[in-house]
Amino acid sequence: MIDLTINGRAVQFDGDPEMPLLWFLRDEAGMTGTKFGCGIAMCGACTVQVDGEPVRSCQTPVGSVTGQDITTIEAAEQDRIGAALQAAWVENQVPQCGYCQSGQIMQAMALLAETIEPTDADIDAAMSGNICRCATYSRIRAAIHRAAETLRA
Amino acid sequence: MTRHHSSTSFALSRRQLLAGIGAGSFALAVGTGGRLALAQELADKAADAASLFEPNAFIRIDTDGQVTVVSSYLEMGQGTFTGLATLAADELDADPAQVRVEAAPADASRYTNPFLASIGFAVQGTGGSSAMAGAWNQMRQAAAGARAMLLSAAARDWDVDAAELSVEAGRIRHAASGREDGFGAFVATATTLTVPRQVTVKDPSEFRLIGGHFPRVDVPAKVNGSAIYTQDIKLDNMLVAVIAHPPRLWSTVRSVDAAAALEIPGVQYVVEVPAGAAYQGGVAVLARNTWVAAQGRDALDIDWDESLGLTTSTAQIFERYRALAEQPGNVSVEKGTILDKVPEGGHVIEATFEQPFLAHAAMEPMNCVVHIREDGVEVWNGEQWHTADQGAIAAAMGIEPGQVTINQLYAGGSFGRRANPFSDYVLEALAIARAAREQGHTGPVKMVWLREDDTQALQYRPATVHKVRLVLRSDGEIGSLQWRAVGQSFFPVPEGGTDALLVEGASDFAYRTGALLVDQHLANDQRLPVQWMRSVGHTHTNVVGETIIDEAARLVGRDAYEYRYDLLSDHPRQQATLKLAADKAGWGTPLAPGADGDRRARGIAVRESFGTVVAQVAELTLHADGSYTVDRVVCAVDCGYAINPDIVKAQMEGGIGFGLSFLRQEITLEDGQIQQSNFHDYPVLRMNAMPVTEVHIVPSGEAPTGVGEPGVPPIGPAVLNALAALIGSYARTLPLGDSVSLT
Amino acid sequence: MKLLRLVAVLAVLCVIAAGGLLAWGWLAPTGPEPEPPFAGLPADMPAGMSRGEYLAKAADCVACHTAKGGEPYAGGLPFHLPFGTIYATNLTPDDETGIGALSADDFVRAVREGVGSQGHLYPAMPYTSYAKLSRDDVLVIRDFLMTLTPVHAVTPKSDLDFPFDQRWGMAFWNAAFFREERFRPDPGASQQVNRGEYLATALGHCGECHTPRNIGFAMQSRDYLAGTEVEGWKAYNTTSDTTYGVGGWTDAQLKGYLWRGHAPGRSSAAGPMAEVVEYSLQNLSESDIDALVAYMRKVEPATGEDNVAVNIDPAAVAASTPLRSGGDNPAYLRGERLFQGDCAGCHQYNGVGRQTDFAALSGSRAVNDPSGTALVQVLLNGTEITVQGRHQFMPGFARSYSNADVAAVANYVLSHFGDTEGKVDAGQVETARSGQAALR
Prior knowledge:
The structure holds three protein chains of three kinds. Chain A has five helices and five strands, in the order ββαβββαααα. Chain A is α+β, with helices and mostly antiparallel strands. In chain A, strands 2-1-5-3-4 form a five-stranded mixed beta sheet, sandwiched between helices. In chain A, strand 3 (47-50) and strand 4 (53-56) form a beta hairpin. In chain A, helix 2 (80-91) packs across helix 3 and helix 2 packs across helix 5 (137-152). The radius of gyration of chain A is 15 Å and the shape is globular. Chain B is of the alpha+beta class. The N and C termini of chain B lie far apart (70 Å). Chain B has three domains: 9-222, Aldehyde Oxidoreductase, domain 4 (2-Layer Sandwich); 230-308 and 366-448, Aldehyde Oxidoreductase, domain 4, CATH 3.30.365; 325-357 and 462-727, Aldehyde Oxidoreductase, domain 4 (2-Layer Sandwich). Chain B has 19 helices and 30 strands. By secondary structure, chain C is mainly α. Chain C has three domains: 2-23 and 39-182, no CATH class; 209-298, no CATH class; 316-439, Cytochrome Bc1 Complex, Chain D, domain 2 (Orthogonal Bundle), CATH 1.10.760. Chain C is built from 18 helices and nine strands. A three-stranded antiparallel beta sheet of chain C has the order 1-2-5, with no helix packed on it. In chain C, strands 3-4 form a two-stranded antiparallel ribbon. Chain C has a two-stranded antiparallel ribbon with strand order 6-7. In chain C, helix 8 (191-203) packs across helix 12 (286-298) and helix 16 (373-381) crosses helix 18 (426-439). The radius of gyration of chain C is 22 Å and the shape is globular. Chains in contact: A-B, A-C, B-C. At the A-B interface, helix 1, helix 2, helix 3, helix 4 and helix 5 of A face helix 8, helix 10 and helix 18 of B.
């Protein structure tokens, strides 16, 4: 039995510990906000946080994160940074198809947890692993700056 | 508010008078909160007829005053849901907050796309950047009719003259008596009225929401993970299917040893899936969990019969195309007399362009949920080709289209892929569901292509070879242009026939030309199905057209912008858009210098596609090692009346990013096998390569045209032209990669 | 270069031929078969494994005797040598194409003396190391192989240039370079070290890859385990040298690397070494891994040729966080941009790695080696390893990266994670690319 803490809730899983956290979240726990994009940690659509670090859940065995705090997009609004980012995402009308945006926001949450004064270079370094095929990148950048601004205020 | 009666009047068609929704459906419906409304909620309301005012197939209003706009189009990121909501809300004088959008069921009798019908596809579908152009009248009329009926109802309930009523933010007022109430209060009466035969829509001067900022209806759900895509559907007794396609295309299954797969806990069925005309088939593994199904798929031991398998390579395909490009083809357009000889003092450009197969690579890999029941088939899908897919499923099952219910969901991108002319992925999902049903599975089946499957399961933007010969007279005018295209068509073309989409952008070459001869060869026999991709033929023809015109300007010693402007004399919209882009980009002014060893330049390109004109100026830095970065792109767009200017801008930004990816992408085939599989070998533009973008909209009072696609075609040639300004030669083979040779 | 080397090899072979024949008499082992050095099984032998299977895994037979995608032990894997291609033989007990009809004596002879049913074997088969095996151990391995399901798989004929196609010629090579000696425990060393040596030399044949070869392609004994290039990858210095070898590694790091493919704070096994861990080392018992570690501590330090000193605390890594890169030289911006998009999602900037320990780059020799040899390989072709049932991999970028791209990423990585000025250029990448193409 695998004991997990997802968005502050204790969850148990009686299954293959090698199952990627992504598929546990989506197909077992019914939390579909975290998306499947590539399966090889190259697009970032599946990004969640594990103990505050952004992690590609498609390459993270569910058995490797027992006892760690897992945060998904579903709980982003309960986080001060997450909520600021979501508001900035709405204000800047970032999403198009929207499929990658859960991962983008989870990644950006980790960046702003590191610094609330990110430079463009910081954003490039932190966010370039997250693909947006609709290329909403300019707006993501603007929204991160905007969220950072509201967090500094 | 007083209404001007200078507005356009329309007679409502019978189609618009048809009412009713398919009860019991589980359709996508979003309010301005963007959340999914479940079937039951809709069905309950439908059941209570008096609580629902449904004057036509596009608008519903309930007693709470909630306005539901029914979208016959797919929302795949292009903003159509919001565009429709804007049109309806403005015409109704509703409050944006009371408007929600619901996806229409597949129903050809009510929702055929007027634009697609006009070009011969009488389907309900999304494509050709046509939604706003089609809805501009349709949705406004529907809303105007609903508004008129609500006013009649209010006049009756309050016993006043309808002409004394005004509407603002969803509330109807009678100034003289001070009475005021929301739409919902008049629904009961409105349902008893007949739909007016004649309605009047607003004059643009009366718009309150159109042309302003209307927040996207889908955004709230797309920032908190609650937006539902096909990938997210989970139904009772549903199994997920992951399929093993043949590594060598079109090979068939000789035998399969599924023992190891069936030993994996959770794997429930292994089914053979015979190939269809447009899909590969293979062997599918079904489980409750996607990963378990994928494990099962990987554990299959399949003996492929490769006797029917493809053995070609892209190198051979291009070799053949190059040879065909030397032979006269079937003529698409012939105007004037081609100049065989270069006039005295003139110039000639002879060039051959090669562009690869490309994959759509939407972030959500292709998938589809199918439930075969005794009485029909129900589908959950990011549905882009509604009634065509409905018809294809009905034909495959031997049932009536009406027995096929399609629940439309958000699509995580598509770029055309979800509108397959032959319903490939939908029919593959159906075939898996049928095979599973034969083995006893009665529930729904969600077919999931993993990224590798999505990359390798065909339906690419066709590879092309274009051969051009452009003769310039001594005065700089184009004497003649010969343009030969070699590629494939999306639909069968009879012997000797031509495909318009292969040469769009060539056959309507916009620059003033003495003579034009466009011909083509179609290599449709090579069993490599192709499909339209965002901007279709313009994706490749504009690389040709906009670099040769640039080269022509260079040869005759003219400025690239001014030369274009001059030769576009027959196309004032293109001229104006080009000028706006050039002005805003500071064309002709020096660029800020780059770092040591860097060289910088601008490149310009323009294209009218899908009725919309887009011009772009790219600012590029070429580094000492030959690598380059696109730093900034200034874009001007004339899409007629901009219904949602912010969405227009977003689509231009996205189009630029999409088009820049072409510089590094290709799908290749070796010995019948696709060589790319995932984002490591099929790279997509990333954040750190996205230029700063600036979008300017040409003010226009014309009817709107689409913006989903037209942002793509200019960016590639704009970059190639900027590079040529620095290195003196034009790239003619894509992908270019992220550097050029400086030796 | 290749041609020159060939001519040199030929010349050397001819010169030594005569002398070699004379020497044959006294170099061949004489006297009775020595006692096997150990009872065979470790006390903590993994459950469910026979002694023969255990030893076969320790000797890593399967890695070479299995074709890509083929049946295990059924042979067919090509070995592309400078003078042609040879193929691993079928070790399943098929009478016609495998070892079914091979007598015990013949099997032992093939393993330890390099003489098979067709005549002399080429030393791609490490009989040069297996010669140290006890007869008992070889027979136990044979017993295990005989329990396999026979696979009818004809080993492809080797395709070698003259004179290398003449198997009898190998007699001269053997005479010159092969000392057929059984393993002799060092009475002065502990039982554990002796067992480790037997595992490393006789069974694991580490030296075959990790020892530079002389002009006749034989292991150069004075540089034993000092590191060299193999199949375009680097087999690093694994002597106890504290600067260039593994002398600076902790026991836990060595053990982690050998047993699980990853040494925390140091390297992860990639490429051919990943296969060694996957097929062989991860199956060994803990006491045997400890024995290997104990033995490696005793290996004479040697500097070797292409030696790599590792900076385990590079400045740029120290200045970075998981998500933000600090202290980078702007000269490497092109590589940095590619790294940001395609690599940072797993490797991060602070050297720690994400999702898997294998993505940690700090302390890795590959990112400290200015030649970038292994780095270029891994960037082009990726790497994968399955340890304890978990598949870890990195995809290769050969199709989407130009040679200049690969060089740019490699040099950025060397600068950032190794504080080293990388020397990788597009030409080197092209060579690696075509070299790997030839190997396929």
